[in-house]
Amino acid sequence: MSLTGTWHYRRSLASRVTLLTAIAVGVTVTVVSLASYVTVRTQSIRTLDDTLRHRAQVVSQAADLNQSQVSAVLASASDTRLIYIDLAIGKQIFVIGNRDLRAGTVEANVAARHRGYSCRTVSADGQRYRMVAVPGETRGTAIVLSQSLEPTDKMLGRLGLVALFFGLAGVILAGLAGWGVARNGLRPVRRLTEAAENIAQTEKLEPIPVDGNDEIARLATAFNAMLGSLSASRDRQRQLVADAGHELRTPLTSLRTNIELLAQAAGSDRLTAQSRAEMLDDVQAQIAELTTLIGDLVELARDEPVSAEPQSVELSEILDNAVTRVRRRAPGVRFDVEAEPWWVTGDAAALERAVTNLLDNAAKWSPEAGTVTVRLADGTLVVSDEGPGIADSDLPHVFERFYRSTESRSMPGSGLGLSIVRSVAERHGGTATAHRAASGGAELRLVVPGSARPASDDAAAAAQETGAAVSPVS
What we know:
Residues 453-474 are annotated as: Disordered. It catalyses: ATP + protein L-histidine = ADP + protein N-phospho-L-histidine. Keywords: Kinase, Membrane, Phosphoprotein, Transferase, Transmembrane, Transmembrane helix, Two-component regulatory system. InterPro entries: HAMP_dom (IPR003660), HATPase_C_sf (IPR036890), HATPase_dom (IPR003594), His_kinase_dom (IPR005467), HisK_dim/P_dom (IPR003661), HisK_dim/P_sf (IPR036097), Sig_transdc_His_kin-like_C (IPR004358), TCS_sensor_his_kinase (IPR050428). The chain is of the alpha+beta class and 474 residues long. The protein folds into three domains: 14-158, PAS domain (Beta-Lactamase, 2-Layer Sandwich); 215-299, Helix Hairpins (Orthogonal Bundle); 305-457, Histidine kinase-like ATPase, C-terminal domain (Heat Shock Protein 90, 2-Layer Sandwich), CATH 3.30.565.10. The chain is built from twelve helices and twelve strands. The strands form three sheets. It has a five-stranded antiparallel β-sheet. A hairpin with a 5-residue loop joins strand 11 (431-436) and strand 12 (442-447).
């Protein structure tokens, strides 16, 4: 960028509007004034030429060119000079005027041709004259009239001064008007700027008032919408930090207590082997709980879409892997699984995490020797348990982060598992909902869009339907 451009953009918007307005008006006034000056000057000279030519023709028709007769003809003219050219005698006769002003070759040519006329500007005795020549009555003669341009020049000079004065006045008034318009029109922009600066200094995400429905009002409305989104995001962030701190405090406190007891009892017989083993088991369980909680937090904090190169995965295979894993963690619970093939394009690891969380939740709430019913059909995974079910007041909040019902506060868990399920479902274009099962327990549903056949099979079927030939796979 040039230095001029840099200087221009370093100025305030109001000053730029004022400067550009003044320049635009100045250029316009200059062009109009110049055009007016040229037009008036041309018209004045043309009028003077026509007048001089008419008078010269009247003089040429006089039979006798004595000074008294000519003076009578030219009585209405001021500062007019007359020259009679006679080529036969090769002289210029100064009827009116002096010898300082002489005709030239142009006027002699008019006399020689004895037709047409000539007009030109000459200088003599320090003044400018307009000289017009017309043929005389006799061939080889010409009547030359000249008149001083001093009145015309004075009139044009006054016109130029008036144009300059009004032009400067117009530029000044345009600058003042531009400044006023810029100040008044940019008031919403200044208010928006002050609000943004105040937010940057105080971090108070308060909306600004919106007046009218013009572009500035739309900008203010969009700015308020952005503030609302920022405020909601900050509230969610604060809530996440507060909830995470609360959830991490309990296992960390228990873990620190057990480690301190083990450290104090080291080298002494105050703890039996059984008590020491129980404490170590508690420590391992708390470490596992912390690991799970941190993994859940990381999963939720990612908040990123599916990979740019998603994979085609079979949801029933993911379900089989998840059931196998959960069965090992809950050997006292029976799993009744029926699954149909369902192909999904997405993140296999995230989908397996979501399915595992659904099964873990059902196993946690199932009674001893209870049955968890799992059905997968047409992209809908339904997991039902035989537990106490979900209260109607808790149904809308089941998938919220860190939400735990009154009955679940005494049970292990962070309240993040089901929120991860909803997050994964939304990232894959699906949904996650909670209901009451017919058996009285909880029924959780995960719906993920996909197809009953792989993408390659769908392409082959489409080609067959349209009559296209499908090449066999070698």
